[in-house]
Amino acid sequence: MRRLFALLLLSLFSAEPLRAVQPDEILPNVALEHRAREISGGLRCLVCQNQSIDDSDAPLARDLRILVRERLVAGDSDAAVRDFVVARYGDFVLLSPPFNIRTLLLWAAPFLILALGLAYLWRRSRRLVVPAAASPLSDEERKRVDALMQDERAG
After folding, report:
1. What is the mean pLDDT of each run of 10 residues along the chain (155 residues)?
2. I need a surface site. Which of 3, 36, 113, 148 has the fewest CB within 10 A?
3. C-alpha span between 55 and 17 (Å, rounded)
């Protein structure tokens, strides 16, 4: 029984992540299927937002997977297929958008936020008031403190 439980546990942890690709979508040509998986792994599901179309069960993702495979069977290159999908849906469909003038803010935002945070901390640290060193007591103040101390002791 222990052996069966261990085998079941091992099979759960070693299972390959399930993909949403349906059996009827898989191309008979292994090389084309590999290219299709590479391309669809880099395309965002527009319904799920942070999932590739390869991992999504959404109907739109299925349509895009089929479209990618149809374009590959028609003889398009990987770049041509990506360009075709981007032309229809924009740069948002790419899971890692290209670096260009339209996506400059997207790529620069983390560095801008870091710079603003560091500038804020620097300015805040400069504003901290450091207490001045205590000045020594004058003779008159010392006599008064001594008198108060004697009164306290006599109490």
Report:
1. 69 54 72 90 88 89 91 92 92 86 85 95 82 81 91 82
2. 3
3. 9
DSSP 3-state of 49: coil
Q: Which two tokens stand for residue 151?
A: 């009164």
Of 3.10.580.10, 3.40.50.300, 3.40.630.40, 1.10.8.640, which CATH number belongs to 15-93?
1.10.8.640
Tokens representing residue 118 in the block: 């560091």
HEC assignment per residue over 73-139: HCCCCHHHHHHHHHHHHCHHHECCCCCCHHHHHHHHHHHHHHHHHHHHHHHHHHHCCCCCCCCCCCH
